[in-house]
Design brief:
Length: 293
């Protein structure tokens, strides 16, 4: 079942077109990721879907109907930057947010799952980055939403805190909730998202599962060997070799076949490394390697 359907979304800010033409569908119970370089339009797109800002043009349907008050009651949003009252404790913050809704999730479950038990009495301004992110996620879940929006949920977290947060998000998925998220982390997207839309310059330039995106847009693997290991017999091989310093780089779609060819020429593979194509390769291939501010 399609939970969210977006058709020909556009957004202008004066003479700047932030979102050019975006159409997408989000299946119920899935995790949909929006990826893109800075200024690609992913955050603007998500804020339009959330109902925070109005589109210049386009339609958004929720459960095949225009969004209504019911939509606002059935979503939860974890903002990347949200001001919390410094003088309130974690428990007081959870209670104050819960009082805003008619329907709320079991507070004991929420506290336990988000790992907030040991810090319930701690004031918000005393929280670490990981603790704050877990609190923000708990606030997004306090009304037991059907649809959860996550804006770069693990930004700035250390590896341990990031993995813990991912486990919470996995639990959200397993409970049947739908997630729409933005992220700069390719690893995060590969681990959590069922479908990924890569945006650039206000457009979706590729969409699919992580596996399909890799297979379609960048299936090439990279074999790296010391230059000294390449023998004269390799000259006749049907392999494209590039030399960088003391290394030989071989790009191939058929790793096993390439390795067999190298072995047949007596190449020592003991110092070989193989890099399989991943989502980051796809992202850089589609959007370019130039840093954008």
């Amino acid at each position: 079942m399609v939970l969210i359907q977006v058709e020909h979304l556009q957004k202008w800010y004066h003479d700047i077109e932030a979102v050019v033409d975006v159409s997408l569908q989000v299946e119920q119970g899935s995790c949909f990721g929006l990826l893109g370089p800075n200024g690609a339009g992913k955050t603007t797109t998500m804020e339009i879907i959330e109902g925070i800002i109005e589109p210049t043009a386009g339609t958004i349907l929720y459960k095949n109907q225009p969004r209504s008050k019911r939509f606002s009651e059935e979503i939860g949003i974890q903002f990347q930057h949200t001001s919390l009252l410094n003088f309130l404790s974690v428990r007081e913050t959870l209670t104050s947010y819960a009082n805003l809704y008619r329907r709320t999730v079991d507070s004991d479950w929420l506290i336990e799952r988000c790992g907030l038990g040991p810090i319930l009495s701690r004031r918000n301004n005393k929280l670490s980055g990981g603790q704050r992110q877990r609190l923000m996620l708990a606030l997004a879940l306090v009304n037991d939403p059907l649809l959860v929006f996550l804006d770069e949920p693990s930004t700035g977290l250390d590896p341990q805190s990031r993995r813990y947060l991912w486990s919470i998000i996995e639990d959200i998925k397993e409970s049947g909730k739908t997630i729409i998220m933005t992220t700069h982390s390719m690893e995060e997207a590969e681990n959590l998202c069922d479908t990924i839309a890569i945006m650039d310059k206000g457009l979706i330039i590729a969409e699919g599962s992580p596996e399909n995106l890799i297979a379609t847009h960048y299936s090439t693997n990279t074999i790296t060997l010391p230059k000294k290991s390449i023998t004269k017999r390799c000259a006749g091989l049907d392999l494209t070799m590039q030399t960088h310093g003391g290394k030989v780089i071989i790009k191939t779609d058929e790793v096993e076949k390439s390795l067999s060819s190298l072995i047949s020429c007596g190449v020592d593979l003991s110092e070989m490394s193989v890099h399989s194509a991943n989502l980051e390769d796809v992202f850089l291939h589609l959007t370019g390697r130039t840093l954008r501010d």
